[in-house]
Amino acid sequence: MNIDEILRELNAIFIQVFKDKDLNISFSTTTEDIQEWDSFSNIELILDIEKRFNIHFDLSELRNIDNVGELAEFILNKQD
Questions:
Q1: What is the separation, in whole angstroms, between the first and last Cα of the chain?
Q2: Fewer CB within 10 Å: C terminus or N terminus of the chain?
């Protein structure tokens, strides 16, 4: 899976979690860009991402992710 495919999958997860079919994330999307993105939705988001990509995040890893692009790169590297 390449980075663009990961972004498409992430977009589908974001649409599901935030219940917004018009949501379109990009590599630069942050929590500041999505009003509903709070600590509770973040937990659901991370759990759904872990399940979809069959990976696991450590808390220390999550602290270093500032935007969707970094999240996608992290997922890409976890799949290697």
A1: 10
A2: C
